[in-house]
Amino acid sequence: KTPVSVEDETDDNQEIDELDLTVSPNPTNGKVTVRFTMPDSGVIQLKIYDMLGQEIVNKTLYIEKGGHTEIINFKDITASTGIYILSLDLEKGGKHQNKNAKIQYLK
Question: For 34, which of 70, 79, 84, 105 could close a Cys bridge (C-beta 3.0–4.6 Å)?
Fold first, then answer.
């Protein structure tokens, strides 16, 4: 007999092997919700840069493996209208992972 189709097995309990990042709403006029999934527990750096490369937010977070949410209010950081780069950096056991996202802020 020959197989007619091949299906990949899916496992709902798959291991998370990379940092995942979503930002909403985007564009924003104030608060933005940053959702990320950590592949391992560890220290993460959340940074936001303006288009000139100047760092305007720098948070160090000690986070467990799994999904997390962080809220950033652009009104609290006296940002002007424009494009910003959000960067998440995870370093654990010599492994380094980074994810970036563009955020458009409209006053």
Answer: 70
